[in-house]
Amino acid sequence: MHPDLLRLDGRFPLVEVMAWRPHVTLAALTGAAVLAGHRECRPAAAVLGAAALAGLAVVTPRAVTARRVPRTHDDLVILNLNVLRGGADTGELATMIAREAPDLVVLSESGTAFRDKLMPLVDGLGYRSWVSVGPEVRESRGMTLLASLRAGDLQVEGGDDMQCRHLRATGGILGRRNLFAVHATAPRDRKRTAAWREDLAVVSRWCRAQVAPIVAGDLNATLDHSALRATLHRCRSAATGTGRGLAATYPSSLPRALGIQIDHILVPSGTATSRFEVLDIAGSDHRAVLARVRLPVL
Length: 298
Prior knowledge:
Order of helices and strands: HHHEHEHEEEEEHEHEEEE
Strand content: 15-25%
Distance between the termini: 40 Å
Number of helices: 7
Oligomer: single chain
Radius of gyration: 20 Å
Low-confidence stretches: none
Shape: globular
């Protein structure tokens, strides 16, 4: 239940199990309660219960709401979604963009084909777009970034520091700060788990910068993974203090209480979050993350 304490959770298959620690913790508490009803099983119940309570102490803070943060006109609104190899419903996504008016939209598993279907649907809203890959690259390897008129004169470039090409934006509404739009490798076997660790090491390097960045995308990791927690340095999850740190973004086929949160918006540690939502959208196995944040002044 706690392999992250020994950094064993970065190895396959423990990396998969660790993502579900909140659920394992609840199952262990239930099991301890059942065992406690049988005298001969009470020692085992005590051990299982102690491990479960330790897990609960780690998990519970993510479900706790801190003091309410008022919204201001200077807040930055970011929408983050994995569109499942370009399969998400572009009409529903366009409606969401029109309704929420995000300054920046980060779309994982999105290439030129998806971008070309989406942009006519938001025509007139003033959005510009960039894609990390060319039309010859499959959608699952691409990242798309949309920026509103309010985002100003952004400079955007692609990069290949991770297994999937990412986008880096700076300037405009971001000022000297960088925003990285990323998709980390899914740790589905030993080889891809090694690539996942390498991807998160890149995020760690970015988050150590003197001017802390924003990192948004599908990180294929939860905050139960020590590898993700180790990346944070000068950053934190935008969900911190909102009470929604356990709201599941994946898989969308499960109720939010039964899934895991692997899609993240990491922000500078001094950031205030006034809104954090997990939103359903048809055609993807992920849910979207919408965050309204006020960045620290540089």
